[in-house]
Specification:
transmembrane; Ubiquinol oxidase polypeptide II; signal; seven-stranded mixed β-sheet; CcO_II; alpha/beta; oxidoreductase
Length: 398
């Protein structure tokens, strides 16, 4: 019986180790230099704190055992009240650790500032003088990610790619509520906020497919607000650009407004061309016709305000009512399954009722029938890109 109890006890001791088998350790094993430096900071900070935590835990257990009531050999001194040697150890060790931890954190905080341009590809390679960074403009929508590539004139939904060992300059904003852009293998998360632009500089050092997602709760479709990040060699990245241009449609203002409507589990979409100034219109919250851009409003404020005639601008400044319950359909397709909040019929991202989701999800037959060119489907979103194995035409230059 005693042997069986010991065996069961050992099994229970292994349970925490078995639970770790389902963990994704990408944060501690990243593929980008910025994420690797952040991992090193976590390791160094943890080790420095363990230098005091482990001895304290050990001594706590040791003193409890050493001065237990049944140990009559332990020295009993009820009049003891002070030891200079112990005071020096108790105060100097934690103080030294705090100084070291503070210095490491202060240096790393400035070195890993997401707004700071990169100065190296990895620990052994500086950035070549002729290297040209890749600019990616990111928009957090409800509940999907829109990526603009201004150097190539394309855009994608829920998929992005970047060449290996090429610095990436992210410009990040949101269309409605605050989100958080996060690719654990690439770099730390940074917030996406409407009417504001945050920045992130990063580089991917290994080929692979990595997960990206929103790390800030933003509503019903938050858990499905995910995308794939592809780290590719330059040739593979050129093929990816060519595939987007060959299979994508056009992203104009009307198509964006339909894409902006809340939807979850959004498929990958390609846009071979993008209307000029669309990202800036999203950033300035004036993608909707008739809205005043924030840059224009700030200029009016800078000039001292608009006076009495400024009351005419009131309707042009009501940004927060775009998804108001009383002015918008309650749910969109694909929907969360919750009943609509209004009596109006539900509509999808392409304006069709949910019974006709052709533009949202393409079956396998449609998938093999090819995709329209960039001059077609001007008024709607791009078709979902479920088959990414289609041979790409020769890569084109931006």
């Amino acid at each position: 019986m005693h042997t069986q109890l010991k065996f069961v006890g050992r099994l229970f001791a292994l349970l925490p180790i078995l639970a770790l088998a389902g963990c994704n350790m990408v944060v501690m094993s990243p593929s980008g230099d910025i994420a690797a430096q952040q991992r090193d900071l976590i390791v160094v900070a943890t080790v420095l704190m363990l230098l005091i935590i482990v001895p304290v835990i050990f001594l706590t257990l040791f003193f409890a055992w050493r001065y237990r009531r049944s140990n009559t050999e332990a020295r009993y001194d009820p009049e003891w009240h002070h030891s200079t040697r112990l005071e020096v150890i108790i105060w100097s060790a934690p103080l030294a650790i705090i100084i070291a931890l503070g210095a490491v954190t202060w240096i790393s905080t400035h070195k890993l500032d997401p707004y700071r341009p990169l100065d190296r590809l990895d620990a052994e390679r500086p950035i070549p003088a002729e290297a040209k960074p890749l600019t990616v403009e990111v928009v957090a929508l409800d509940w999907k990610w829109l990526f603009f590539y201004p150097d190539y004139g394309i855009a994608t939904v829920n998929e992005m790619a970047a060449p290996v060992d090429v610095p990436i300059n992210f410009k990040i904003t949101a269309s409605s509520v605050m989100n958080s852009f996060y690719v654990p293998a690439l770099a730390g998360m940074i917030y996406a906020m409407p009417g504001m632009e945050t920045k992130l500089h990063a580089v991917i050092n290994k080929e692979g497919e990595y997960d990206g997602f929103s790390a800030n709760y933003s509503g019903d479709g938050f858990s499905h607000m995910r995308f794939k990040f592809h780290g590719l060699e330059q040739a593979g990245f050129d093929e990816w650009i060519a595939r987007v241009k060959g299979q994508g449609t056009a992203l104009n203002r009307d198509a964006y407004l339909k894409l902006e409507k809340p939807s979850s589990k959004e498929p990958v979409r390609y846009y071979a061309s993008v209307e000029n100034g669309l990202y800036n219109a999203v950033l300035n919250m004036c993608a909707t016709p008739g809205k005043m851009c924030m840059s224009e409003m700030m200029h009016v404020d800078l000039m001292g305000g608009g006076g009495r005639e400024s009351h005419e601008n009131r309707n042009r400044l009501e940004y927060d009512s775009r998804h108001n319950v009383e002015s918008s359909p309650g749910a969109t397709f694909p929907a969360s399954g919750e009943p609509a909040r209004t009596q109006e019929p539900r509509e999808g991202i392409d304006g069709q009722p949910p019974s006709e989701p052709q533009s949202m999800n393409h079956d396998m037959n449609n998938m093999h029938q090819g995709h329209s060119g960039p001059d077609s489907n001007q008024g709607g979103p791009a078709p979902s890109q479920l088959n990414n194995d289609t041979p790409a035409p020769p890569a084109s230059q931006p």
